[in-house]
Specification:
The protein is built from 4 helices and 8 strands, in the order ββαβββααβββα. It is an alpha+beta fold. β7 and β8 form a beta hairpin.
């Protein structure tokens, strides 16, 4: 008869979540993931709906303050343009992933799925996935406006 010895394993004790009381592995916040998500919203301050301007004649998008860019739907260039619109609010978190969600081309909506991370409560890192909707607003660019108006003048006059 052979005797098998159980391998020495390093078992980690569990603690109770400080909010709901379920057993969890220890973490810096001493809370389970669902309680931590309920208490802290790391996407706070990031707008969920943003507008982008689109010229119907030349099919270009406005990159503020005055540059018009040719971008195909769901292209890398359009992704960069949309992320620049969110740049100030996304700077507070770490952007992990960004990608488009499919929408009907005629819906005048561009949906982007963002994955962000942020350190919260005593060094616990929380990751969240959410959707930002970009509303496509029609606006004629200056080049198309000149062509459409035919006799368009742009001048500055100073009378002394």
């Amino acid at each position: 008869m052979e005797y098998m010895q159980a391998p020495a394993s390093s078992t980690q004790g569990n603690i109770l979540c400080s909010m709901c009381g379920i057993a969890i592995p220890p973490n810096p916040a001493n809370m389970c993931v669902s309680c931590l998500r309920n208490k802290v919203d790391i996407s706070e301050g990031i707008p969920k709906q943003v507008s982008v301007h689109f010229c119907r004649q030349c099919e270009r998008y406005l990159q503020p303050p005055g540059t018009w860019l040719q971008c195909a739907l769901e292209s890398r260039e359009l992704l960069a343009l949309c992320l620049k619109k969110l740049k100030a609010s996304v700077a507070k978190v770490r952007l992990i992933d960004a990608g488009f969600l499919w929408t009907e081309p005629h819906s005048k909506r561009i949906k982007m799925k963002l994955t962000i991370q942020k350190e919260v409560m005593n060094g616990a890192i929380l990751q969240q996935v959410f959707v930002v909707e970009f509303v496509v607003q029609p606006q004629m660019c200056e080049d198309c406006h000149r062509v459409e108006a035919k006799d368009f003048w742009k001048a500055v006059v100073q009378v002394r």
